[in-house]
C-alpha cells in the first residue's frame, strides 16, 4: 500500500519593519503549516518578531528562523561578498534572536530557512552551505534545515546529520539545472494561481517540474514556499491549500525527531 502523500506549506512572515508594513501575516496563517520569520537583518524588528511568534503559536503553525544578509534596503535579495565565517556568525546571531522570542513565548523553534540572496548563494556554494548548516547544528541540532530541493545546502545538512526539507516554489519558475529563474529575468514569477497549483501538484505527485527550457527536471517536494510579500500570496495560499486537499494530499509541517 502506498504511503499517503503529505507536504508542508510554508510562508515567509514577519517582514514588516518599524513603521513599514509588509505582507498579510494574520490572513495567511490559517492556510499554512510552517512560517519563516525574518530575524532583523533583511526585514523584521524585535516587536515584529515577538508578535509574529505569538500569531504562529495561536494558529499552531510551526515556527522557523529566516536569517538573511544584512541588507534592509535591498530586502536581502542582493548578493554580498561574505565569507563562510561571516555567514556562520550572522546565521547563529539571527537564529539565537528568534529562538529567544520563541522560548519566551513557550514555543519551540522548528526549522531554519535562509532568505533571499543568502538562500540562493548557499544553494550552489558548498562553503556557504556548510557554514549555514554548521550554524544550525551548533545552535539547534534538532531543527529542520529548509533548502532548495537537491541543493548544496540540503547536502550539507545531511552530511552533518540535520533533518532537512527539500523546498519547492509555487510562484517561481525553474531552470534546467533545478535552480530558480533569477528575479532579474523575465518569467521568473508565476502570477496565475491555476498555473501555480498545477506546478505544485505535479512536483508532489510526479517529482517533476517543467523548466523554462521546456524539459522536465526531477525534484523532491517536502515543503512548498509561498512568498508572504507577493501580490498574490493570500490568493495563492488559499487556492493551493484547497487544491492539495482535493488531491488527497495532507498538509503538515515535517515531524521533528528527538525534538
Automatic annotation (TrEMBL):
Name of the protein: 5-oxoprolinase subunit A
CDD domains per record: LamB_YcsF_like (cd10787)
Organism: Pontibacter aquaedesilientis
Entry EC no(s): 3.5.2.9
The UniProt record lists the keyword Nucleotide-binding: yes
Record-linked InterPro entries: Glyco_hydro/deAcase_b/a-brl, LamB/YcsF/PxpA-like
Subunit structure: Forms a complex composed of PxpA, PxpB and PxpC.
Catalytic reaction list: 5-oxo-L-proline + ATP + 2 H2O = L-glutamate + ADP + phosphate + H(+)
Family: Belongs to the LamB/PxpA family.
GO MF entries: 5-oxoprolinase (ATP-hydrolyzing) activity
Keywords, alphabetical: ATP-binding, Hydrolase, Nucleotide-binding
Keyword ATP-binding: yes
Function: Catalyzes the cleavage of 5-oxoproline to form L-glutamate coupled to the hydrolysis of ATP to ADP and inorganic phosphate.
Amino acid at each position: 500500500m502506498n504511503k499517503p502523500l503529505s507536504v508542508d506549506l510554508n510562508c515567509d512572515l514577519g517582514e514588516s519593519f518599524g513603521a513599514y508594513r509588509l505582507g498579510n501575516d494574520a490572513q495567511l496563517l490559517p492556510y499554512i503549516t510552517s512560517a519563516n520569520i525574518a530575524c532583523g537583518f533583511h526585514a523584521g524588528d524585535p516587536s515584529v518578531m515577538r508578535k509574529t511568534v505569538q500569531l504562529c503559536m495561536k494558529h499552531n503553525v510551526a515556527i522557523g528562523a529566516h536569517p538573511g544578509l544584512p541588507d534592509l534596503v535591498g530586502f536581502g535579495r542582493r548578493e554580498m561578498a561574505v565569507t563562510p565565517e561571516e555567514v556562520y556568525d550572522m546565521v547563529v546571531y539571527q537564529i539565537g534572536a528568534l529562538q529567544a522570542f520563541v522560548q519566551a513565548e513557550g514555543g519551540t523553534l522548528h526549522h531554519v530557512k535562509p532568505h533571499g540572496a543568502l538562500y540562493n548563494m548557499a544553494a550552489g556554494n558548498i562553503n556557504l552551505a556548510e557554514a549555514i548548516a554548521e550554524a544550525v547544528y551548533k545552535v539547534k541540532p534538532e531543527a529542520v534545515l529548509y533548502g532548495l530541493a537537491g541543493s548544496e545546502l540540503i547536502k550539507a545538512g545531511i552530511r552533518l546529520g540535520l533533518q532537512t526539507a527539500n523546498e519547492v516554489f509555487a510562484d517561481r519558475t525553474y531552470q534546467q539545472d533545478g535552480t530558480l529563474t533569477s528575479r532579474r529575468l523575465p518569467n521568473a514569477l508565476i502570477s496565475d494561481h491555476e498555473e501555480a497549483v498545477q506546478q505544485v501538484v505535479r512536483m508532489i505527485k510526479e517529482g517533476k517540474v517543467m523548466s523554462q527550457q521546456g524539459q522536465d527536471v526531477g525534484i523532491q517536494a517536502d515543503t512548498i514556499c509561498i512568498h508572504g510579500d507577493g501580490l498574490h500570496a493570500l490568493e495563492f495560499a488559499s487556492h493551493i491549500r484547497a487544491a492539495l486537499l482535493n488531491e488527497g494530499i495532507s498538509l503538515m509541517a515535517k515531524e521533528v525527531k528527538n525534538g
